[in-house]
Structures are given as C-alpha cells and as structure tokens.
Specification:
Chain A is 76% helix and 0% strand. With 282 residues, chain A is an all-alpha fold. In chain B, strands 1, 2, 3, 6, 7, 8, 9, 10 and 11 form a nine-stranded mixed sheet that branches. The longest helix of chain B is centred in the first third of the chain and has 19 residues, at 2-20. Classes of the chains: A mainly alpha (282), B alpha/beta (401), C mainly alpha (300).
Chain lengths: 282, 401, 300
Amino acid sequence: MRSHSPLRRRKDLTLSAIAVVLLILFLLPLYWTLVTSLKTETEIFRIPPTLWPKTLNTASYAVQLEMGDFNMFRSFGNSLVIALCAMGIAVVLAVPASFAIGRYRFRGKKLIILGFLLTQMLPVSVLLTPMFIIFKNLKLISNWLSVILADATIGIPFSILILKNYFASIPRELEDAAAIDGCNRLGAFFRVFVIICIPGIVVCAIFSFLYAWGDLAYGMTLIQKQALRPITAGIFNFLGQYGTKWSYLTAFAIVTIIPVALIFLFMQKYIISGLTAGAVKG
Amino acid sequence: MKKLLAILMCVVMLTCGVAGLAAAEGKTTVNLWYYWENLSHQAELDKIIQGYNGSQDKVEVVASYIPFADFKKQLSIGAAADMLPDIVILDNPDHAAYSAMGIFADITDKVTSWDGLQYYYPGPMNSCMLDGRYYGIPFGSNDLALFYNEDMLAAANVAVPTTWDELTAAAKALTTDKVYGFALSSLQNEEGTFGFLPFLWSTGEDSYHLNSDGGIKALTLYQTLSTEGSLPKEAINWTQGDVMNQFSAGNLAMMVNGTWQIPTMRANITEFKWNVTYIPKDKEYSSDLGGENFAIIASGHVDEAFDFLMYATDPTRLASYIGNFGYIASRSDVASQQYQGDAVMQQFITLMQYAQARGPHPEWPSISDAISTAFNKVITGIATPADAAAEAQAVIDGIVK
Amino acid sequence: MSYLRKLVRSDRIAYLFVAPALCYMLLLVGYPILYNLLLSVQDVTVKNINNGRFSYIGLDNYVRLFTNDVLTTSIVNTLVFTVACIIAQFLIGFLLALFFNRAFRAARFVRGMMMMPWMIPMTVTALMFKFMFSTNVGIVNQALLAAGLIASPIDWLTSPVSAMIAVIAANVWIGIPFNMILLSVGLTTIPAELYESASIDGAGRWQSFRHITLPLLRPTIESVLVLGFIYTFKVFDLVFVMTNCGPVNATQLLSTYSYKLSFSLFKYSEGSAVANVLFVILLAASLVYLKYTYTEEEGM
C-alpha cells in the first residue's frame, strides 16, 4: 500500500489540477462580467480585449446612486422585500403541509402529492396571462402583493416535496418517545419534528428565496411602476435603455448576483442536498 | 403561524403604501410619461416642468421615463389595469391608435376655442386627430437626414451620395475593419420603420403598398447594404440613440438619423467634422415627419393637464426650449424664427418640405410591425425582398381594406 | 373539546395541516389554469378588457394560431432548443460527473463551485451571454478570431441559426451543473464491489462502464432526461432577454410567443391559447416522469 502512495499522490494532484482548470473555464462568463463592470467604456471596446481592468473604474456602480427610477440599489431593495415575503409564505405554508404528508395516512394523499408535483413543473408563462387579468380585477397590478403571491407558488410545491421526505425519514421511535413525554401529535410536531427538520426548512427557505429573486416574468408583468420593480426587471429595462452600455449593464448583473453568491458560498452544502433530494426523489 | 403571515402582509402593505405617498400635499398630482432616453432631453423637460410647478400652487406635474421599446406596452397594460398617467408625450404615428381605443380625452372643445390652434402646421396637427376630433396637441416636429463624417469621406475620396447607387458604392468604399459605411436603426418596431419609410417613399410608393416594384426595390437596397457588409447586422438591435453613439465614436461613416440628436452630437463630437444632407433618393427626395404629441388621458385630471399643455405650448416659452430638443416647432410663428444662421438645422428645415407623416391610421402600429418585420427578415437573410414584401403585404391587406 | 382532542389524535388532522397550502395553490395556480381555458375561447384584447364586452368564439383562436406560421415556428424552435440543450448538457454533465466521481482531493469543492451557474437568475445569465456573443465586443468572436478559426466576426445574435446556437449555449451552461450533480449522486449509489469483481474478471474500463454503470444508472438517466425536458421546455427569461426572440422569430419559443401575444400585442385570449398548447405538452411529459417515480418509490 505504501509503495503506491507517491504515485497516487501525483495522480491526485493531476486530477485536482485538471478540475481547477475545468472550473476556471466553466466560470469564465462570471469572471468576464465582473471585470467588464470594472472597466471603462473605452477599455471594453479595446481589441484585443484586456483580461483585467487596466484602469479600475467603479463609476458604473457609483452612477447608479444618482439614477431615479432605474436605481439598481432601489430595485435591489424591492427584490429583497419581494423575495423574503415570498419565502415566508412558502415556508409557513409548506412546513405543516409536508409534515402531514410525511407522517399521516389519509385519503387523497397521493392525489395531493401528484398535484404539487405537477405545479412544480408548470412554467410561469402558462399562468402569466390569467394571473395578470385576475390581479388586474383585484386592482393589485403594480402592488408588491401580486408578485409575492405569484412568486410563492414556485416555492411552495418545491418545499413540500423536499420536506415531506425529511419528515418521513424521522424514525417512529422519536415520535413515540415524544408521546410518552406527554405530547400529542400536534405537540410533537412543534417540539420534535420542526426542530429536527431545521436543515430541510433552511433548504426550502433558500430555494423559495432564490426562485423569487430570479423571477423576471411575474415581476415585469405584474409590476408596471418602474420604481417598484424587482432587480431582474430593472436589468431588462436597462437593456432597453442602455443596450450597448456594457459597463452599466454588467455592474447591474454583478449586484444582482451578490446575494446569490453569498448564499451559495455559505450554504453550499444545503443547496446541493436540496437540489438532489428535490429533483431525484421529486 | 397565521400571525406571522398577517405580519408579513402588513409589512408588504405598509411598504407599498409608503411608496405611493410621495406626492406633495394639497396639490393635484399630474403624472406625465415620456420616452426620451437622451439625458439632455430629460433635463430640458425637467426644466419646463419645474417652471410650471413653480408658477402656480394647485398642480404638481411629475414626469416618469418609460423606455421607448416599452412605451406602448406600458400604455396598453396601463389601460387594461386602469393605471395610466394624466399626460403622455408619445410618438405621433401611434396617436390615432390610442385615440381609437378610447384612452385619450377628446379635447376638441378646448382646442377649437384656443387661439394657438391657427398657427399649427396641418401635418403635425392631423396626427393628433381622429374622425375630425382633437385628441392632443403637437409637442414638436423633426425629420430624418443623412449624416456623414466629412473627414472619412474626404480621406476615402468619396463624394456625398445623392442616389441609391451612390449610397451603396460610398458605403462599401467607406467600410473598413473598424468602420461600417452606413447604418440606421432597423429595430423591429416603430423606430426601425421610421428609418425605412423615406426609402420606400422615395420610390413613389406609399406606406401601404410594400409588395410593389418600389417596395421590393427599397428592401433590396437594405439587402445589398447588408450583404456587402456596409450595414452592420447589429443595426437590427440598435436604437437611433445607439446609431448616433456609434457614429459619434467614429464607428460609422454615414447614418440616417434625426434632428433631435444634434444637440448631443454637438456636445460630444470634437474629433471630426460632420454634416447633414438629403437622404439619397431613388425617384424623389423623401424624409419622415417625426415628432411627439401631447395627449391627455381620458380618465385622468383632464383640466389640470390641459392647463400644463397651455403653459408648455405658449409661443415664447416654446421658442425658449424647442431648439434645445433639436426639434422644429410645430407652429409657424415659432418655427419661422428658429435656428437663424444654423446651417445644419436649416438643412433640416429645408428637408421638411419632403417630409411625409406616417398614417394617421388607427391600426398604424400593426402596419408598422408588418413593415419592420419585412426589412428585418431581409437584413438577417431570412427572406428575400420579394418574399418579405409579399408576407408583409398580406398582413397589411388584412388591416387596410 | 373532546371532539377537538379526538381530531388532534386522529389522522384526519392531516387535512387541517395540508389545507392552507392546498387552498393557496388551488387559488393561485388551479384557478388560473381553468381561467386560462376559458380565456382561450373568448376574444379578450386590450380594447375590451375593461368594459367586459367580450364574447365566446369557440376554437377560433386555436384555428387562427395553427394556420399562422409563427406558432408552428415556435413549436419547432422549442423542440430544437429543448432537444439540443438536453443532449449537450447531458453529455457534458455526464462526463463531468464521471470525472468528479474519481476520488481526488479537490473533487468535492470544485464540483460544488460548478453549481454556481444553476443558481444565478436567468436574466443575468442571458445578459452575460448576450455580451459574450455580441458581434464587435464579444469575447467569443475575439477568441475565435485570435485562434484563426474565423476570418471575420460572426453576427451571433442577429443571424437566425447562430442566434439559436447562442441561446442553446447559454442554456447548456445553466443545465450542466444540474445534470452533473444528479448523475453524480446516481453514480455514488453503484456499489464499488461490482467494479472490483468486474476488474478481477478482466473487464476493461469501457466494458465495466457499458455493463455496470449504464444499466445501473438507467433510472437516474431517465429521470434526468425527463426533468431536463420539462425544465428546458418552459424556459422563458433566458431567450426573452438574450435575443428578444429574434431575429424575426428565429428564437421564438412557445413560452415567449405566449408572452408576446398577451403583453406586446395585447391579444390576451390568443396568448392564453398558446399557453394552453404549452401546458398540454408539458402535462404529458410530467405524467411520463411521474409514472417513473411512482413505480420506483413504493408507498408514496
């Protein structure tokens, strides 16, 4: 065994090196966006392109502070409120529902699961037109409530399908132990299950947040007031106005990615577990 | 749990409420939508509005910028959702369509009793009308011309083109690794149609007959320019502002663009000399009568809005700002005094005699869509000029009977 | 009180737990779907949406749409886009999954980092690729020119075929991590002993791949492909932002066409008719997928 060690180590190094090169190639679009946002407009048009900013230009970010309705920091805040509220609704509704599906036997359960599965696969564009007309009749166009309600419909089925597996995987003995301690099932739900399933709930919260954060269709259709629009719709407007002003556009893109990148860096483990659990076991 | 939900809802309602409460107390807020992407235009408009808001204490005009590509969408969705402003400054060919839809207030009584009416040119004024009723007042007029980089033409020893053959030859000769010979906004919307129509009209055809010798000839011109590489294909994604920026950056030798770009170009271009001339012709010189109109929304504060219009169209006031927009006033008493000694702008005023208006037709946006789809297909090589013309004609024939 | 206690102890309390989420989804998803069917047999446009003067016109919207080229173009485009994306992202994802499943130190970390594209809002991805594929400043053209592969810049987003290639490339970039991670998980479930005994029997790498990996991975592969179909078929933001469905419908998909009809042309009823076409196709695909998971997962 020992005699293999240097050979194995070299192999390990080679593979790791290849992996890093692959990673760099794969994430090149992100790097390119970041450096472009820090270049001056003339440097962006330089041929051959410069691989990093020769003169650091942060004006593309700073200029945003002075822009009225298209202010990216304002739309960042809008997105934050929308995504957090949608996340709240999704979690609050999904936790009890998935608890019931994971722990109880009742008639119509299969049908309900099927229903949630189907809605998870439903494209936004199918719902857009009817939702617009329904919310228009409710006088909720250009009101955050409409986007929040709509965005939560993406997070709820996803959360339920993930969490039901978490709840189902808790051993029966724990529930029995709780029952001996004098909890009924309802008490057990709060004292035992919810606490144990916190990692699962975190996954649901993250995904519900990200779905709402990334939504463009609902945001730009249901909100017509520029000042209330989420950041994705802000980017889209910006493209219309500054079609070729790439320093502004890429700066906008970077600001939009920031929360995603932060969540990703700190919660990577949760995200990957959620993705695989949600998609494979669906 | 329910409590949490309730708190969440409250937070949402509250934030929405705060956002809507920005208006000053006691004054009626009159909202205005416009689409000028140009910062100097925005600043000029702001000056007019600030002047008005300071001149009285009853009405507060608040302007919002809506991107041109989004403008009609916002107007239609706003109409559907009952969320329109009080005034819009819109592209004049679209005016009739929205009047027909019932979005704009019929201000015939107010306009006919107004002494300013007699001074307005019939072309721009007609674009505000539908079935003999007035639905707005012109803001100002503009037209299109051929801009050329004098230094580049001189360096390549190319004469200023006056015919289509000269145009294609010159564009080809001026195209290098870094410079395209010629460009104009060819977006698949009104902006693109605006640039195309002078070529169509130059053949003697009107806007409703694309599938004709003239129509196909005009489309073939686009095809030739595109296949020879002198017209960048990216022009199908360029706004007129983008084209102007490319020209200003020295990436274009010639372009078709409008009067309103001139203030910005004069401020930005220092490195080369440029000039304007007629758009090269097939049979006759032609140009497009562009411009914007004020319209008042029927469901809005009509009286307050009209009061602002009276302020903004006052002849002395109009004379003080219309030139800064690069526009030609739509009323003769102001226009006749404009741009004295300004050779470039005088050229545009001369061109006005060749300028035709689009429409007015209540279905103009759909007609325009058919036309712009046709030249987009030709530029990108999806269809031949003849096929594209036939397809567009089928659509137009379905509308114009 | 005793009733309440009984309820709390019985299984029927489950309904109480499920009810809020279920009602929410019925109201905000179920009702719109039904409303969409109704809308598609009416003639609602911007002109009559506020006065309510619309009438039932039966299947006229569908007939009109199916006799018009754009719907057929959109269906064909959607299929081309979906199939090309699935093939490319599956193959690349599979190769990467195989690579990262070899035991080496950086594998876990690097594989994790590669999930990034999947998380980024599609609007941003679209913007990044729009920039990279732009004719004059795009790094793609610059790289190809520098490598001598092309003589002059390609008009990626303004020529029909290359625009489709560019949006496919962008979507594949998003889809690779998704395919890779699911296939990776599938690979780890294959017992290592199987490979060991196969190599003792003298099986080469290709043979063990062919006879062990592929058959055992089959359920995962099937579900990855069907999920890929569902997720790709409904893509909206990416194409809408990157090419705005152009040039002239060359990248028009069912989802974007539905949006265009409803919110650019304001023919709400026609937009909902296209949405229903999209819905029916996806429903069929979803049911196929669910059949797999149902037969696999016992006692669900």
